[in-house]
Design brief:
Number of strands: 12
Strand order of the largest sheet: 7-6-5-8-3-9-12-11
Order of helices and strands: HEEHHEEHEHEEHEHEEEE
Bound molecules: NADP nicotinamide-adenine-dinucleotide phosphate
Shape: rod-shaped
Distance between the termini: 80 Å
CATH architecture of the largest domain: 3-Layer(aba) Sandwich
Largest sheet: 8 strands, mixed
Number of domains: 2
CATH superfamily of the largest domain: Dihydrofolate Reductase, subunit A
Radius of gyration: 52 Å
Oligomer: single chain
């Protein structure tokens, strides 16, 4: 119990197999040698049995004494034994098996290498086509007419947006938000809304829609004859804005991706221009910030963002 730990023999499996094969081989050769000795003694015994002891003296097979036939048969058996130990062994023995196994493994390895090459080649092709598709996707995206077309509007509770080609309220924080959101972007508007401005708004690209030919505008303002052309003119802008008025909003509702609505919490009975109804089946509200009335704002209002469903 308290004795020394037994140390395990450190011969590995391969060495063990070699030793076993060598032992087997020695035993085979030993058996052949014993067979040879027995054959010699046996042959002498058969000769003596016939010639000295006279056993089967008159027995002849194919004209030969029986012991000659017996010795010849035994010799055949011995030759067969000899051949199996020294010749057949070379082809069917352990070395031969190992050689065959190695050849097979080499063949399989060659096939594996070939398949690996084919797989790598295919992977390259797939990567290439993925990169190609990515380029194509990017191109399509850059060609998309309305990357994030946004309607921006301020409307009363019954959707009133204007009267006599002007706004009905003055809400400075709403104007500030309008300026902040549209700053640096394309703003698309109907001819009447454009004319409601004293002058073009700074740092924005104005696109004015009119059916008139030769409509005169200050330098830098783009004039188009349809809403489609207006959207096309703004295609390089990631977020062009539709800024009104009533006619243009109505035509844009099916095209826009987003609505930035300032809901003014009051009714304006005398309005003459209106924003279309926002269909809750088509639009989902994603953000709302409320703003109370105060000394600078005659009405309370809410900034509400809708995304197309
Ligand atoms: N509350 C708000 O957020 C807000 C925002 C913007 C405007 N507004 C108000 O809205 C009112 C103006 O709106 P509105 O509806 O009277 O006019 P609008 O939409 O601004 O402009 C209408 C004009 O646009 C042109 N147009 C419209 N559709 C067209 C098309 N498919 N192809 C070519 N041209 C087209 C026409 O110009 P031509 O006649 O020259 O052909 C048409 O007369 C104003 O009271 C303004 O203050 C309010």
């Amino acid at each position: 119990m308290f004795g020394k730990k037994k140390t395990k023999p450190s011969i590995d499996q391969e060495q063990l197999a070699l030793i076993k094969a060598a032992e087997k081989r020695i035993a085979q050769k030993k058996r052949l040698y014993i067979h040879f000795v027995i054959f010699l003694i046996g042959a002498v015994f058969l000769i003596l049995a016939n010639t000295v002891l006279g056993i089967g003296k008159d027995l002849k097979i194919f004209g030969l004494d029986w012991f000659v036939i017996a010795i010849i048969l035994w010799l055949f058996v011995f030759v067969y034994h000899f051949v199996s130990v020294f010749i057949t062994h070379k082809f069917m023995g352990k070395d031969w098996e190992d050689q065959q196994r190695e050849a097979l493994v080499a063949k399989q390895q060659e096939r594996i290498d070939q398949l690996t090459q084919e797989y790598l080649k295919e992977e390259k092709e797939i990567a290439k086509s993925q990169a190609y598709n990515q380029i194509l996707d990017n191109e399509i995206t850059s060609q998309k007419k309305t990357p994030d077309l946004t309607i921006i509007v301020a409307a009363g509770e019954q959707n009133a947006i204007g009267k006599d080609n002007d706004l009905i309220w003055h809400l400075s924080d709403d104007l500030k938000r309008f300026k902040a959101l549209t700053n640096g972007h394309h703003i698309i508007m109907g001819r009447k809304t454009f004319e409601s401005f004293k002058k073009p708004l700074p740092n924005r690209t104005h696109i004015v829609i009119t059916r008139q030919n030769g409509y005169k505008v200050p330098e830098g303002v783009i004039v188009v004859n349809s809403l489609d052309d207006a959207i096309d003119a703004a295609r390089h802008d990631k977020q062009p804005f539709i800024i009104g008025g009533g006619e243009i909003y109505k035509q844009s509702m099916l095209l826009a991706d987003k609505i930035e609505l300032t809901r003014v919490h009051s009714s304006f009975e005398n309005a003459d221009t209106f924003f279309p109804e926002i269909d809750p089946l088509q639009w989902k509200e994603i953000n709302r910030v409320t703003h109370d009335a105060d000394e600078n704002h005659a009405y309370a209002f809410s900034f509400i963002t809708y995304l197309r469903k």
